[in-house]
Fold these 3 entries.
Entry 1:
Amino acid sequence: MTGQHPQRSVLVTGAAGGIGTALVAHLAAEGWQVLATDRPEVCPNSAADLPPSVHWLSADLQALALGGDAIDAFATQADLITRSKPLTAIVHNAALQ
């Protein structure tokens, strides 16, 4: 079923961990544009090994939950990435510490 989602984007939280990394790889292989998020300290330093359909957005969900500037900045980044492929799914894999 590879390539069945050519016009769709998915947001994956907790994307830097084991399950998150597998989810991102699987969704990208299936043709999704992936917005991968995780805390700044665990996001990869280089996207060289990622397919072009994967975009890393550093985000602390606890900070985003408080709203304000953090959520506005995240929303702006996500909007720029998903303009051509609307966000149609969210996989919440993040844990709160």
Entry 2:
Amino acid sequence: MVYVDDERLPDRGMQMCRMIADTLEELHAMADTLGLRREWFQGGARPHYALCRSKRSAALRAGVRAIGSRRLERILQEQCAASPPTREEAHCRETPL
């Protein structure tokens, strides 16, 4: 399942939200569907793509599930806790969202 939150994070004059998924394969497949560049992927302990409002609308039309930002953060924490972190991600269990 792929999810997008309802955040409105300011970035370069735009309002951004976050798109995550249960697996990286699902996340990248949806990013491809939406025409997102792979270099826009934000990996690490909390892998996601930041979406502008128009891409969020396109994601919802493509079947991405809308969730609140708190739910998105819980999913990311659960994913982090479920997999052993790499050296670069070792902070994920300690860094609050």
Entry 3:
Amino acid sequence: MKKCANCNTKFSKRKLIRSAWLGYEKIECINCGAIYEHTLFNRILLSIVSITPILLPLIVTKYFDLQYSLLIFLLSVIAFVLFAIFIMGYLRFKKIK
């Protein structure tokens, strides 16, 4: 859900990303004041997405030189950021107020 269930006001991507990366803050609709929170699905999905760029360079260093490992690390971080923005469209929220 990317919009409020009450008034159909769309949530901005910036608000969704900020909420997810700052400890799963609650999201408040600016139009009607309804409050939404992240579901367990969001927490699991974002945890998997977050750990991938950390583990990938560790695995790659076993097979490549340090120079290539740094390059792969940078590429994985860029891919991570792009993928995280894509994932924001699949987040689910439940209304609590």
